[in-house]
Design a protein that fits this description.
The protein is an alpha/beta fold. It has one domain: HAD superfamily/HAD-like (Rossmann fold, 3-Layer(aba) Sandwich). Helix content is 37%, strand content 15%. Bound molecules: magnesium ion.
Length: 169
């Protein structure tokens, strides 16, 4: 499988049904922050996303924020969501994902990494051997270099459509 190819491509986080994850043997969900969990222009996750995280936890799924950011906001947001976090994760290197698995005491077959960027989140997931889930970005507001990468991502996806559930993929 290509390092650039996500196992699943979904419209957003809330398309991920905890039952579908459990059916696939997933025990831990690692989440990117910017434009996956929280819109780049905002400082808080939406009510829908917060409810989704609660539903993962209710289904005994472990959840951790794995972000390349080094903003103090990461710690505050993770605390508000009641989840642990890794910042400066250095995605696309697999370091942050590996550290998350070690902390959560899960192996790669039990882990999914969810993010909105192929060249950071999907590559880090695929290098780590975990399930890679790409979601559409929450907004089109991105850093300049991200805007450039989005153009390449569109080529990589080659017209692949985002699905509404893991089972639809
Ligand atoms: Mg992101």
């Amino acid at each position: 499988m290509s390092l650039l190819s996500p196992d699943y491509y979904l419209k957003d986080l809330t398309c991920i049904d905890p039952h579908d994850l459990k059916k696939r043997g997933i025990k831990a969900v690692l989440l990117d922050r910017d434009n996956t969990l929280v819109s780049r222009e905002k400082t808080e996750a939406s009510d829908e996303v917060i409810a989704w995280i609660h539903s993962l936890k209710e289904h005994d799924l472990k959840v951790m924020l794995v972000s390349n950011s080094f903003s103090p906001m990461i710690a505050k947001e993770a605390e508000a969501l009641g989840i642990d976090y890794i910042d400066r994760a250095l995605k696309p290197l697999p370091i942050g994902v590996s550290e998350a698995m070690r902390r959560l005491e899960v192996d790669k077959l039990e882990t999914a990494m969810v993010g909105d960027q192929i060249f950071t989140d999907v590559v880090a997931a695929n290098l780590s051997g975990v399930v890679s889930i790409l979601v559409e970005p929450l907004t089109s507001v991105d850093l300049w270099h991200t805007v450039q990468l989005r153009k390449v991502e569109a080529l990589v996806l080659g017209g692949r459509e985002a699905q509404e559930s893991l089972d639809a993929s």
